[in-house]
Write a structure and sequence with these properties.
323 residues, TIM Barrel, seven-stranded mixed beta sheet, three-stranded mixed beta sheet, 14% strand, globular
Length: 323
């Protein structure tokens, strides 16, 4: 069976974002490819979920999240809303991994969602996971898409020999708000369902509760709503940040979206934050206290605890074997 036939068969067995017209709209567009010399690179910050390497197969994102920091001028991503794939990605990834002297966890999703709509047919992320499994590495996935459930079979295989963690970004407890701030990706409700499916299959999965948008999503109702739904989905962790960041390029786009959907909020940002990079919620201290109390002992929220929980059962020597 070919890759596309396998993907079709898998998609019939999972409820994924592809059922939405917006998902079909983007996935039906022809994929553009850009050149790349290398894809898997050493992680600049191993303290972030314990990853040793970073991998971004795609460039740009079509989710349309109004707050996305990757829009910032400093990243120099032209036409950010157009998703492009790196040419010969799977061959490059295989070569990159074979050149690594040490095993480790490969993070993906830092600059572009590995499960964008094109992934449904291109299956580059799925192909990369197969290589990661074959060569004995671990993986840390960050995504907003429930398409990740399509690859549960490979994720389970990886978990037999190496650490694996799936981080699903959820910033709004209710679909009505998530559709406003993350308009072109499946709503929060489907992401909670994906989280539950991952957990039921033994995958260590949880939530990235970031950013929290001041005056929009920084309410006790929203934070508690996310924690309570996370518990029902058997999430293992929630990594939270009670604020957001704004840089040149991203700030202008964000303000335009505020004018469109949140009347009067832009002026509050301008008055309180001016040109500041870090925009913490005025309620940050109270929200943090409430968040920690609501997590109790069921949900981890400290980075060191999360890393130890998903990596601890694996032999440390396994992660430093020479290829």
């Amino acid at each position: 069976m070919g890759d596309r036939q396998r993907a079709h068969a898998i998609n019939q067995n999972h409820r994924i974002c592809g059922v939405h017209s917006v998902f079909r709209m983007f996935s039906e567009k022809e994929m553009n490819y850009i050149p790349a010399k290398t894809i898997v690179q050493k992680s600049p910050n191993k303290n972030w979920f314990g990853s040793s390497y970073n991998m971004n197969i795609y460039r740009g994102c079509s989710h349309g999240c109004i707050y996305c920091d990757s829009r910032s001028d400093c990243y120099r991503i032209e036409d950010f809303d157009t998703v492009r794939a790196k040419a010969n990605a799977l061959s490059i990834i295989r070569r990159d991994l074979k050149s690594k002297r040490e095993k480790g966890v490969i993070a993906t999703g830092s600059m572009s969602d590995p499960y964008n709509p094109h992934e449904k047919t291109e299956m580059l992320t799925r192909g990369a996971l197969e290589i990661i499994d074959e060569l004995g590495f671990g993986v840390a996935i960050a995504t907003k898409s429930s398409l990740v459930v399509r690859d549960i079979d490979i994720l389970k295989r990886i978990s037999r020999h190496s650490p694996i963690i799936v981080k699903i970004t959820i910033t709004a407890a209710e679909d009505e708000l998530s559709k406003k701030i993350e308009p072109f990706v499946c709503p929060s409700g489907e992401r909670f369902e994906a989280l539950k499916a991952l957990s039921e299959n033994g995958i260590f999965a949880g939530i990235l509760l970031m950013p929290v948008l001041p005056f929009i999503s920084d309410s006790a109702q929203n934070i508690l709503g996310i924690v309570n739904k996370a518990k029902k989905a058997d999430a293992k962790f929630i990594m939270a940040s009670m604020g957001m960041t704004l840089r040149d390029g991203n700030r202008e786009y964000f303000y335009k979206q505020l004018d469109r959907n949140f009347t009067g909020i832009k002026q509050k940002y301008m008055d309180l934050f001016a040109d500041s990079y870090e925009c913490r919620s005025p309620n940050a201290k109270a929200l943090w206290h409430m968040f920690r109390e609501s997590c109790t002992d069921r949900i981890l929220y400290k980075m060191t605890d999360i890393i130890n929980a998903y990596q601890g059962k694996y032999d440390c020597e396994q992660m430093t074997l020479f290829l």
